[in-house]
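Before relying on records like the one below, remember that each one covers exactly one chain. Contacts with other chains, cofactors or solvent are not represented anywhere in the record.
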Amino acid sequence: MRLGEICLRRRVVVLADEIHCDFVTKGVKYTPFATLPNKAVVNNSITFKAASKSFGLAAMKCAWFFSDNMDYINRVKVNNRADLSTLGMIASKSAYSGGEEWLNQCVDYVDGNHDFTQKFFNANIPMIKVGAKPQGT
């Protein structure tokens, strides 16, 4: 909210890149920018999403953007080149409708790798200090 309020006051549009949103580590909550309680802040933003990072579909060419602010949508459309593929749309739909179990396993695996690495460094290379665990990718 604070960042959104600062941007609103300074007349800076928020481009919320939420393409990595599915890779949130244990104990961290993902809050979509478009769900913030201040509607003026939300109206000052455009959100970008895709299944590409979560499901390894980067080559499928299927991403999207949305906003409650139709003026922003229309301004972005002018400079946006739709580069979609049928395979990308089908793959993205399939990933979101049937890939939850796989994604959960993948996120758990990545999270476990973070824990393993931190424990390994602490036990075997104590001169290397591992910083804060990332909240996501």
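The two ends are 22 Å apart (CA to CA).
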